[in-house]
Amino acid sequence: MAAGLVAPVVTMIDRAVAERVSGRMPFFKSFTSSLQQFVLRPHIFLFARPTAIMMLLYSSTYLTANVVDTISSTAQDQPASTTTSGIAKFGAVSSVNMSLALFKDSQFTKMFGTVAPRPLPPASYALLALRDSMTIFASFNLPSKFAPTLPESIEYHCSRLSVAQFATPALIQVFNAPLHLLGLDLYNRNQPMAVRDRLRKVLRDWPATSLARMCRVLPAFGVGGVVNNNTRSSMMNALEQVA
Questions:
Q1: CA 141: distance to chain centroid?
Q2: Residue 67 exposure: Cα atoms within 13 Å on the Cβ side
Q3: Would the pTM of this model clear 0.85, i.e. be above it?
Q4: Alpha helices (runs of H) in 41-159, residue ranges in sequence order
């Protein structure tokens, strides 16, 4: 359910970022083009290869998180609806997410870049893997740690865990956007180049890309994370009552 909600929006944003970085098309022109196709020809957009790849990525990520939560809560004799955090969850979720995210990035870069398709260089893989590990940690491990530090008055309006689930993945994008930009630049401009020339491009695109990635991660791990947690909690509570 959560993956189906977030995949279309994240596909539009990731495609727009890839086309902007490669110089193929401005961000908003690409995004509006995808949005127009989604509205006017949804069957084509939803069953296209980019959306299918995104669905695989997020459905696998949420499923892994849910399985680890269920196993951990059962092993620790806690309610099955408990949301856990720890090295086991980070390791399992990041392994699944990063492997599929790198596959997604390589496919998007080839589909929406301006150069002839070729393998991503090892440096790009390393930068994108570090980017994804930071996002996963901020999305699945930090919220439960960060939520108790928020004012209790927030509970009158919404759950502190829900607020943390939105805040932590979004804020980390300020720090991992440069990794994303440099990884894509190493693919798009694979010729030898001075470090300062690459950094100049990264610094130029940093603010816009940080904002775009925040907009991307809010549905992916904000809305998607809250929907996934609430759906799992409701299902586990129902099972506990039956048992």
A1: 14
A2: 11
A3: no
A4: 42-46, 49-75, 87-112, 122-136, 142-146
